[in-house]
Amino acid sequence: MTTTLPAGAPTDLGAAFAHINGVTAPTVDDLKIMVLLEAAGLELYRGMASGASSPEVAALLEHNGREELAHAHRVAKAIMVISGESFPPPASVDNPYLGAALPQTPVTAEALRSLAQGEFAGEQLYERWAANVGNPDAAQQFRQNGREETEHGQRLIQAAELIEA
Ligand SMILES: [Fe+2]
Ligand SMILES: [Fe+2]
After folding, report:
1. I want to staple 30 with a disulfide (CB 3.0 to 4.6 A). Which of 26, 36, 54, 80 is the partner?
2. Please, what are the domains in the chain?
């Protein structure tokens, strides 16, 4: 069954990303949106991997995708420690942000470098959330995710260099 969005939450993927990128101190509803976006990251990276020009590039993208799902689980853990509420990442088929056709990102070096900047920004976003959330256990989950967003950016640059080689 499709996961129900929090009341007033953006209903499409692009609007949800835009909303989340502007959040400095997340509410539980913001964290639910983040669970869904991180979980969607698995499919977004898988989709890109299927269009990659080499198995090496595909493997880097799939590695990032698997970790995005792990990020969704950590944000769900943060929701649990903050509110006691269970909000596990849904299967992709039940994710309301994966209902529409997914954006098709061509796997060019330029696109990967641009996506890398988004990943580095994700690290800063999680760092801000960790500083502002007021819960040390939740902050720890955010910081772990943030460190891995930096690694995602580095992997994307590595993939771009493979394409350019
Ligand atoms: Fe992530
Ligand atoms: Fe990431």
Report:
1. 26
2. 13-164 (1.20.1260.10)
